Amino acid sequence: MQASQATVTENPRHPDNIVIVGGGAGGLELACKLGRQFGRSRVTLIDCRLSHIWKPSLHEVAAGTLDIHQEGLSYQMLAHDNGFTFVYGPLTALDAEARRLSVAAVRNDAGEVMIPQRELTYACLCIAVGSVSNYFGVPGAREHTISLNATEDAERFRLKMLELLTMAEMRKETGHEAGVDIVIIGGGATGVELAAELREASGVYADYGFRRLDPGRDVRITLLEGAPRILAPLPERVSSAAIRLLAKRHVTVVAGCRVTDIRANSVTDAEGVTRPADICVWAAGIKAPELLATLGLPTNKAGQLEVTGHLTIKGFADIYAIGDCAACPNAEGGLVPPRAQAAHQQADYLFEVLQHRFAGKPAPAHPYVYRDYGSLVSIGQQTTVGSLMGSLKGLSWFVEGFYARIMYMSLHLMHHRAILGTLRTAVLALGRFLVKRTTALVKLH
Ligand SMILES: Cc1cc2nc3c(=O)[nH]c(=O)nc-3n(C[C@H](O)[C@H](O)[C@H](O)COP(=O)(O)OP(=O)(O)OC[C@H]3O[C@@H](n4cnc5c(N)ncnc54)[C@H](O)[C@@H]3O)c2cc1C
């Protein structure tokens, strides 16, 4: 039966309430921490999806080494367990003067309204809606590439790759030459991690039934990067180590390559070289969601919300923004980079600010300061490379191998700890370790 299409007004049960929009790396951690302390009448989380997967894991979802049905955490469960209210649907409009926002109706596949449009009022608001792909106007990029910005994209990539592997296997069975060409555009952490994960996964897929395919020869992975080297923002040593590890895994890396045109089955660069691409991934850049420019709040050129050092939106003392969607100044005069560690730190800072507010105390005087603890890039399931920042400014340590891998995995566990608590995180980690030993190493259906 179709629900009423009338707008429903959800009145806050507490006059000094907070609404958080976006349950990702930053917003979900904030909602869980606040919910545990102040309860569901005061804390509301809105997200346009029903379950949460930590975004830095999406390359594993794409490669099939992480199963979304095992990894995804339901927002309703998290709301129940952490004591916040969950509202399902996308934020579509904001009336900052009236402190009111609109969440669009949720429809089923047939277009019928399942949940009507809702209006919510807030005393303070935190926007944490993350980022989307920036195609920089490259012709064909939007239409012919898959990005890794959302779980659906990563899952779409996985299914398409399975389909291509099956078709290649069938062609080989009938005596034809066949293979799969995967082109990844963007040699940042996302592109590098995906290339390495795919190479390892292609070997596992071959073991599980695609026996006619030689993964190193028939699954051809090419990584294109516009800058002179991959992982350009990281120290040169990290970049060289990644190139070496990718070469060992038969991934072709082409740096200084500016893509100018993408078609259904090919990618062309500024030099006029056209490469075959059965499947193409766009990992070349991100920008803020376009919705932000429609909210009547100040945005920068990249569409991010302009915030002060205290994470309030300029000119709006009761609206905060954290994570990728916030243009937050850092100590060097630039902006805090769009990274999970920044979103995590900002959620911690805002938790402290709101604890003061809800206790009727003045907000802490100190602004948010971004601490860069370094960057780690996963190269498949066994190894990681990266640099760790020392406590002295400018000092960094190169790390590689199993130790770096453990540190990389601990970042994911820290996120789970913030939303599930220590004991449940430990049980979940053990459970997943055991499940991995009793199920296929890649998702085959
Ligand atoms: C493949 C990959 C690997 C990465 N690896 C690393 C890494 O190793 N280290 C690192 O520091 N960073 C990494 N990043 C970057 C990191 O994931 C992001 O910086 C981080 O997730 C940003 O957190 P956030 O809370 O701002 O947004 P997100 O985590 O993206 O969450 C945004 C949330 O908002 C919701 N949302 C969006 N629009 C709306 C709307 N209109 N209404 C309601 N809800 C909405 C989304 O559903 C989502 O839940 C990686 C990113 C990718 C894609």
What's this, in brief?
By secondary structure, the chain is α/β, with parallel strands linked by helices.
Kindly name the structural category. alpha/beta
Estimate the mean pLDDT confidence: 91
Bound molecules: flavin-adenine dinucleotide
CATH architectural designation of the largest domain: 3-Layer(bba) Sandwich
CATH topology of the largest domain: FAD/NAD(P)-binding domain
CATH H-level superfamily title of the largest domain: FAD/NAD(P)-binding domain
**In angstroms, what separates the terminal alpha carbons?**
32 Å
Number of helices: 12
- Poorly predicted sequence stretches spanning 5 or more consecutive residues: none
Q: State the share of residues found in helices, binned by percent.
A: 25-40%
The radius of gyration is 23 Å
Percent in strands: 15-25%
Sequence of strands across the biggest β-sheet: 6-3-2-12-25-24
Q: Could you give the count of β-strands?
A: 29
> What best-fitting shape do the alpha-carbon axes yield?
globular
- Any idea how many domains? 3
Report the top-level CATH class of the largest domain: Alpha Beta
Largest sheet: 6 strands, mixed
